[in-house]
Amino acid sequence: MARNTTLSFEFYPPQTQEGVTKLMQTAKELNEYNPEFFSVTFGAGGSTKEKTLETVLDLKKSGFNATPHISCISSSKAEIKDLLDIYKSNKINHLVALRGDNPSGSINFGELNYANELVSFIKSEMGDTFKIDVGAYPEVHPESETAKQDFINFKNKVEEKWEILLKLMWALIQRFIPNQRLPNKIL
């Protein structure tokens, strides 16, 4: 079986001009490894979404393939749709869709609670405008009730045929799969 392995690097949006300069230098250095793209985080609860867009556009202007993260935590469907329209108007056609994290101390989930709901919403509103990648947690997610439920959520993502399941750590196969005894009926 042929493996189609890709590489990407993730950036947090810089908050200062010095940070922008460092990010561009780092992108130039990392580009030597031929990543498929650079992704730019969204911040807890979308706290950096304006800087996310700005950073993606700066990277694109410098000739790099860059894509924003988008999350559904703490956002209404209208806010997400507005952001999708902004991305589309800026010729951004690739997203990393994540559930996201609540800002520290917050418990606001917004109208969509999970990445699969976010992806379904994006597709229902925008059709095939965006290539959508999603995350895959390398171990049992801290908020999952059981390893079995976590694996079922992962399986559902695979069955949706989402373009890429980005692993937060390469340890997924080494740590998660060998240590779990899951019934064949969910596989």
Main attributes?
187 residues, alpha/beta, 6 strands, 15% strand, globular
Describe this structure in words.
The protein has a 6-stranded parallel sheet. It has helices at residues 17-30, 49-61, 77-89, 115-126, 147-159, 172-176, and strands at 8-11, 37-40, 66-71, 94-98, 131-136, 165-167. Strand 2 (37-40), helix 2 (49-61) and strand 3 form a beta-alpha-beta unit. Helices cover 37% and strands 15% of the residues. The protein has 187 residues and is of the alpha/beta class.
- Per DSSP E runs of 2 or more residues, the count of β-strands stands at 6
Helix/strand-derived category reads alpha/beta
Specify the overall morphology: globular
**Count of separate DSSP helical elements:** 6
Average pLDDT taken over every residue:
79
Question: What is the alpha-carbon Rg in Å?
Answer: 17 Å
Beta content comes to 5-15%
H-E order: EHEHEHEHEHEH
User: Mind summarizing the main beta sheet?
Assistant: 6 strands, parallel
Low-confidence stretches: 168-187
Query: How far apart are the termini?
Result: 19 Å
What is the helical fraction, as a range of percent?
A: 25-40%
Please write out the topology:
Elements: E1 8-11, H1 17-30, E2 37-40, H2 49-61, E3 66-71, H3 77-89, E4 94-98, H4 115-126, E5 131-136, H5 147-159, E6 165-167, H6 172-176
Parallel strand pairs: 1-2, 2-3, 3-4, 4-5, 5-6
Helix pairs in contact: 3-4
